[in-house]
Amino acid sequence: MERADKDLAFMLQYENIAWYENGKVRILDRRVYPAKISFVECTHYGEVAQAIKDMVTQSAGPYLAAGMGMALAAYEARSLAKKEMTAFLEKASEVISNARPTTAVRMRAITEKALEVAKDAVEAGRPADQAVFAHTVEEINQKYERLGITARHLTSLFPQKGTVLTQCFGESIVGLMLRESRARNLDLKVVCAETRPYFQGARLTATVALEQGFDVTVITDNMPAAAMKNGMIDLFTSAADAISCDGYVVNKVGTFQLAILCKYFEIPYYTTGAPDKAHARIDQVTIEMRNPDEVLEAMGVRTAMQGVKGYYPAFDVTPPHLISGIVTNKGIYTPYNLMDYFKGGL
């Protein structure tokens, strides 16, 4: 297999996202990266689910972690009879896929497929954990290849010389769009909104951009309007945690306000991802509410006085009229013709 993570930054290499080996899953702790390179080691599938819930990994990281977690579950169940093993893996699928509610539908698709792979391996007399592991690696590689196509569509929208604003950390699409920009010889600069309270833009996106050789600037979350007014931004792009078929984009909280600013300053906003039939309408997407205390601190240091309350919706919803286009592996769509994505059997 030719790996599609070639020439991408450290944290986008498969082994440095989440990896199963010898009855353990190790996950890069993105809560402390890049100040510290540390891995959380899981010996039970429940620990993988907890790591996802605790934001050890985020963006698309949980999807790879989910597959690796199912490989671990198969290892844990290796000595059980078929019926008991199936029940054990079904429980693992439920627990892992529901670690975070907003992405539960996509996660369930991953864990249930891994469950089927494990069952087939048992029937064939092969180690179920290795079968699930191999399947998961092949799936992430195919995903990178699909996103590579998405990256080509996205970078076709970039100026030959200009500055792109990002929001949060879009995982592999960030590295792939930068790799493609380099291949196209674009003179591109990157501005990253810091993305409180976990600072994913400042720590993760900015690190990937720098490691891949780009001029990158971090701004605080209350600076985008000033940056746009001062002519610093030519285009805004983000990934999406969910895209409903009626054209709404669910992404890290703050995306909505950036889209409003783009509309005001006449700056295009393109999101990357694909619509999900399970989210036919936006009201079918659950917005995760996280522990409000997380907004009362910065990198583990309390910033608000005891007794002050916090509010933390993990995601917000950007309506169709604020979105210039949704970039997929099949092309670029408006928010109003997303059902065309499914033509051709998808």
What does this molecule look like?
The strands form four sheets. This protein has a seven-stranded mixed beta sheet, with helices on both faces. A three-stranded antiparallel beta sheet has the order 1-2-3, covered by helices on one side. Strand 5, helix 7 (200-211) and strand 6 (215-219) form a beta-alpha-beta unit. The protein has nine helices and 15 strands. It is α/β, with parallel strands linked by helices and 346 residues long.
How many strands in all?
Answer: 15
Mean pLDDT metric: 96
Shape: globular
Mind summarizing the main beta sheet?
Answer: 7 strands, mixed
- Please count the helical segments: 9
Can you tag this structure with a few keywords?
alpha/beta; 7-stranded mixed beta sheet; 9 helices; globular
List strands and helices in order, with pairings:
Layout: E1 18-21, E2 24-28, E3 39-42, H1 45-53, H2 61-76, H3 82-97, H4 104-123, H5 128-155, E4 161-166, H6 172-183, E5 187-193, H7 200-211, E6 215-219, H8 224-229, E7 235-238, E8 242-243, E9 249-252, H9 255-265, E10 269-272, E11 297-298, E12 301-302, E13 315-318, E14 325-328, E15 331-333
Parallel strand pairs: 4-5, 4-7, 5-6, 7-10, 10-14
Antiparallel strand pairs: 1-2, 2-3, 8-9, 9-13, 11-12, 14-15
